[in-house]
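Q: How would the structure tokens look for this protein?
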Amino acid sequence: MSTPVDTLSLLPGDSEPEGCDRADKGHGRGRVDAVNPNLVSVLRGPPPDKGDAPPGVVAADGSGAASRVRRACAACREGGELFPFTMAFQPIVDLQEGRIDAYEALVRGPANEGAAHVLGQVTPDNTYAFDQACRVKAIELAARLGIDRQLSINFLPNAVYEPKACIQTTLRAATRTGFPRDRLTFEILESESIADTAHLMAIISEYRRQGFKIALDDFATGYSGLARLAELKPDIIKVDRVLAQDCDKDRVRLAIIASLIALGTEIGVKVVIEGVEHASEVRALRSAGARFVQGFHFARPMFEGIARDSDIAWIDPGGAGAATGA
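A: Here is the predicted structure in token form.
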């Protein structure tokens, strides 16, 4: 099973206070410990025991906790009653082509409440059912909205027990809705410590076998940084907003970003810069070679909807201002 933050980020809705926007776009993004401590104990517990796992599920190692696997498998098969929630979508834009490249799915309450409102209702008993419902909801909404770009879905690998078994609900949702598998990207949260690298590599291998792309989220602020990049060899890295913030005024930040972009080009990894809020940052990033960017400057997350190419605040590369509505 993947974790209940599988298709979500801790970005609050636009109706929430500006301070919450900024906090959750930064270090709080993807962090569940500040929202629901009970949920963390489930996600970060040891993997189940191989001998006690139910048929068809082989645990990562022999450290115990088979009851979590049984609960996970039951949630996959049976679902269960859950609190209402839905999704918002934020675009990732391609500055070179002047088009939206992908959308990231972000969990929301039914009245556009922020992610904290939703995660606060997650318990050890409904964790796995919620996780599966998140995947299905994101894919169903993406299909209904006619998304014809990549769909980016967050997940925490520490809660994936057996990749082939745990991905089945996602595959069924994609098949039922006609959403192409090769448009699904799964983001590994860099803020999450991974105890079993071999198990994570098995997850990545299975996801790639299914046609999915793999991204490292919040890159440059997490546990392993470049070492994790070398081990996992993702298709995409998403550079955290702490580097993008004020990069137009800070040559050190901009130089680091330029180096990461050059590294990505050298090793064949797409580099996405997150948390871009100002036109001046966009121009600085463009000068550093950035192509793929995401942030409030271009579009805020849209509740059960998507921004179109014509809605994006594109920047005149000459520095004269926004081409459309910046």
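Confidence is low (pLDDT under 50) at residues 1-35, 40-64, 318-326.

The chain has one domain: 18-311.

Upvote if useful.
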